[in-house]
């Protein structure tokens, strides 16, 4: 289906690529960083990437915001908006849950660095 | 926006990271506005730039604001990320172009919402009628998730004031190792902050 | 401490009623313009969070105690679910608003209004509860300190 000669059609994919690049930045943060707060921030970046992906899919060229008004014929797709709207609020609630776990971990282990936590747990297994 | 994201990944000072993530959210909100999602932009600006920043600062005040320095960049993670990104970009080649009205997503149920919601539900804001009426079950579930998350936060750290919390002895022992002196349970957390910030 | 700064306190005093008013506008005007329960709840919570940041969490907890926010949290879900049950009792299906009033539009409008109100209440309750928890003083029984205007041990001042 894809026509390699049509360079202008590649530009139409830019929104997906932005979302993917952002997503990979978040993904890298989650798997490679050792700091737990940084990991939560990484998850947030990842999350926003997904949101951008959804919203950009719902955009219709020349369309306006989906608030009905006489004289406007073309609207952008409201469905992704609904899904992402709820997802954002749920996202912040779950982020709060993750941060609560981080606080609790800091309370138990005295650190929020993943490798240090593993060392402590390892030491305790040796003692036990 | 992408630049902000990369800067975020590189930064070591967690306080700056959190401020930047607020800026990142604001950029995202502006982007949603450009893409006609006024409701979403509104929510992102209020939630992402407002509440999450405050919550993260709260966490920071209870933990530490400096990340430990790791010199090595994990090559395995980098390869994994690049490979995944490459596959995903390859996957987008068949995707409908940005703003295409003939894309499958714009041909399905959305048209019905746009055409009939004024008649069937009433409110001119289609997002509201889809949210509360057509997809009422969905939103009920989301509300329940928010409720559960708040209860979860209460359960996990709602009683941090309790000095007899299990596990705190372990952290105290660790601090004693670091400082070479016994630490009283009450000011253990504060000493730890001092130790880590110096 | 934040609270020693008169400028912040005056500006906050001016802003907070406006923020609350705006939250209510967003809540009840959400059918016509951008807005709705989720946004309104967050903005409502932001007003209280600003208040606690400027005047101290302890004062804010006098204005709206943690038990009240927790009740809001549960009450919102109750309103939402209750609307569904009422429609069932009135002969419709779960969350079928058409039966709530004589006309379809009237019923839908009432249904959407109630449901959005439930969402707003839950979200506002959740956000304030989470904030209170993170500021480290969820325990209602703690005695009040002498200095009411001091932001308590959570070192909020760090960020400013």
UniProtKB/TrEMBL annotation, chain A:
The keyword rRNA-binding appears for this protein: no
Family: Belongs to the CPA3 antiporters (TC 2.A.63) subunit C family.
Segments crossing the lipid bilayer: 12-31, 43-62, 82-103
Location(s), subcellular: Cell membrane
Predominant localisation class: membrane
Species of the source: Magnetovibrio blakemorei
Membrane-topology descriptor: Multi-pass membrane protein
GO terms under cellular component: plasma membrane
Record-given protein name: Na+/H+ antiporter subunit C
Alphabetically ordered keywords of this record: Cell membrane, Membrane, Transmembrane, Transmembrane helix
From TrEMBL, chain B:
Parts of the chain that traverse the membrane: 12-34, 40-61, 73-93, 139-158
Topology versus the membrane: Multi-pass membrane protein
Cellular component GO terms, alphabetical: plasma membrane
Organism: Magnetovibrio blakemorei
Region (Disordered): 164-198
UniProt feature coiled coil, ranges: none
Pfam family, one: MbhD
Location within or outside the cell: Cell membrane
Keywords tagged on the record: Cell membrane, Membrane, Transmembrane, Transmembrane helix, Transport
Protein name: Cation:proton antiporter
Comp. bias intervals (Basic and acidic residues): 174-198
Domain of life of the source: Bacteria
Domain MrpA C-terminal/MbhD: 1-62
MrpA C-terminal/MbhE domain mapped to chain residues: 93-160
Keyword Membrane set for record: yes
TrEMBL record, chain C:
InterPro entries: CPA3_antiporter_subunitB, MnhB
Domain of life assignment: Bacteria
Lineage: Bacteria, Pseudomonadati, Pseudomonadota, Alphaproteobacteria, Rhodospirillales
Na+/H+ antiporter MnhB subunit-related protein domain residues: 8-129
Compartment(s) where it occurs, according to its Swiss-Prot or TrEMBL record: Cell membrane
UniProt record similarity statement: Belongs to the CPA3 antiporters (TC 2.A.63) subunit B family.
Ranges annotated as spanning the membrane: 7-26, 38-60, 72-90, 110-134
Main subcellular location: membrane
Full protein name: Cation:proton antiporter
Membrane topology: Multi-pass membrane protein
GO cellular component: plasma membrane
Keywords associated with the record: Cell membrane, Membrane, Transmembrane, Transmembrane helix
